[in-house]
TrEMBL record:
Biological role: Component of the transport system for branched-chain amino acids.
Record flagged with keyword Cell membrane: yes
Coiled coil, from the record: none
Lineage: Bacteria, Bacillati, Bacillota, Bacilli, Bacillales
Keywords for this protein: Amino-acid transport, Cell membrane, Membrane, Transmembrane, Transmembrane helix, Transport
Source organism of the structure: Evansella vedderi
Membrane protein topology class: Multi-pass membrane protein
Transmembrane regions listed in the UniProt entry: 12-30, 42-65, 77-100, 120-141, 153-176, 196-213, 234-260, 280-306, 318-337, 343-364, 373-391, 411-431
Record family assignment: Belongs to the branched chain amino acid transporter family.
Family matches, as InterPro entries: Brnchd-chn_aa_trnsp_Livcs
Name assigned to this protein: Branched-chain amino acid transport system carrier protein
Subcellular location as annotated: Cell membrane
């Protein structure tokens, strides 16, 4: 089979598969919260959110296609030590430290909390997540068929419910947006830009991108140029779907304050919107579907982490690795969704700038002839700011580090790492040229 045999239907099919891969229940909780907080600045903030929540995952898929490998291969451009620790940090973030526990917390917030309220909250959360992660572990022992089948059923239902909510929210407005709060007053775009980190789709794409590339190769794509071209088209299809979902949810969140009030997390917001617009039956349907979607995401992430451990440390049996990660995720999920989001913020602020730089450098690697010193300099420049910036969000070190970050250029917008990353890349290129001249 050649490129001409790879049909438009194949492209659309894999694009929808990628959309389903990204559209986990966790992605549904952040845009409503953004909409509430951004208020009248909702569209500016949403554009920023789309850059990191949609644009970066698409670029990450293209970067994986251009590299012809996976996250480890891309990381090798920086160095062998970096290629060990950065992928490990990414897998921990999308795995037991945040991604997997979030599935249990979101499932509880939307699937059970609306029916029990605040009474015996800790006990119900414990029992719910115990059953949820016990089932996740069992299904992760042989996940492939179940995740695929549920994904094909659940994703269209979620999209249909969101579409219905959006149509009703437009035809029967809940209210108007309020004034911006929580950092959206001045730099709404960049606040939304940082909120997009929470979807974790950009670093998730670095991990799961190889799955998309493999599916395309199975359908006959063999040349590098054709793979990159089709990966770009697939990414645009998936990104368009995500964009429509995020725009709808941000709109619903912005108009929901008069109905559900200001809430700490988007799970409560989405539940309140669903109950108001669709009634009790709509609430039950949303609860069931999102709980199943969370379960599917949990199984997929647990399996991916288990396979990563097997690849890096083959002596550890797969059942043991997924058992440990499931138990740890169960314990983390009992922090509650709001606390879990606060816990994850420092790690995401550390990782995302490095991931962004790595993706952009991989896409434009031909411009500097894949010079490893340019890679090293740009990544180091971003990390020198993003790591302290992440630590400044912690209670232990925040008071000491934040005064050092605040005066930096663009720090008020949350992107102080951009200029150091550019300077680092330029310095890397300069050193490389000097060495080349000295050799000649």
């Amino acid at each position: 089979m050649n490129e001409r045999d790879f049909s438009t239907r194949d492209t659309i099919t894999i694009g929808l598969m990628m959309f389903a891969l990204f559209l986990g229940a966790g992605n549904l909780i952040f845009p409503p919260a953004l909409g509430q907080a951004a208020g009248t600045s909702v569209w500016i903030a949403t554009i920023g959110f789309l850059v990191t929540g949609v644009g970066l995952p698409i670029l990450a898929i293209i970067a994986i296609a251009k590299s012809g490998g996976d996250l480890q291969k891309i990381s090798q451009k920086v160095g062998p030590t970096f290629a060990i620790f950065f992928p490990l940090a990414v897998y921990l973030a999308i795995g037991p430290l945040f991604g997997i526990p979030r599935t249990g917390s979101v499932a509880f917030e939307i699937g059970l909390f609306p029916y029990i309220g605040e009474r015996s909250l800790t006990l119900f959360l414990f029992l719910f997540t115990l059953i949820f992660f016990g089932l996740s572990f069992w299904l992760s022992l042989n996940p492939s068929k179940l995740v695929g089948r549920i994904g094909k059923i659940i994703t269209p239902i979620i999209v249909a419910i969101l579409g219905l909510l959006t149509i009703m929210g437009i035809s029967q407005p809940m209210g108007g947006p309020n004034a911006p709060i929580e950092g959206y007053e001045q730099f709404a775009f960049f606040q939304g830009f940082q909120e997009g980190y929470f979807t974790m789709d950009a670093i998730g794409a670095l991990v799961f991108g190889i799955v998309i590339i493999t599916r395309m190769k199975e359908r006959g794509l063999t040349t590098h140029a054709a793979t990159v071209k089709r990966a770009t088209q697939v990414g645009i299809i998936a990104g368009t779907g995500l964009m429509l979902v995020y725009l709808s949810l941000a709109f619903l969140g912005a108009t929901s304050v008069s109905i559900v009030g200001y809430q700490n997390n988007g799970g409560v917001i989405l539940t309140g919107i669903s109950e108001h617009l669709l009634g009790f039956l709509g609430l039950i349907l949303l609860s069931i579907v999102i709980t199943m979607a969370c379960l599917t995401t949990s199984v997929g992430l647990i399996s991916a982490f288990g396979e990563y451990v097997q690849k890096t440390i083959p002596k550890i049996p797969y059942p043991l690795s997924i058992g440990v990660v499931t138990l740890f995720s169960f314990l983390m999920s009992n922090l509650g969704l709001t606390q879990l989001l606060q816990f994850s913020l420092p790690m995401l602020i550390m990782l995302y700038p490095v991931a962004i730089v790595l993706v952009i450098m991989t896409i434009f690697k031909d411009l500097f002839h894949e010079n490893s010193l340019v890679f090293k300099g740009a990544v180091l420049g971003a990390a020198l700011i993003s790591i302290p910036d992440g630590l400044s969000q912690t209670a232990l070190l925040g008071n000491y580090i934040e005064p050092l970050i605040t005066p930096l250029p663009l720090a008020g917008m949350g992107v102080a790492w951009i200029i150091p990353a550019i300077i680092g890349g330029v310095i890397g290129g300069f050193i490389s040229n000097r060495w080349r001249m000295a050799e000649n």
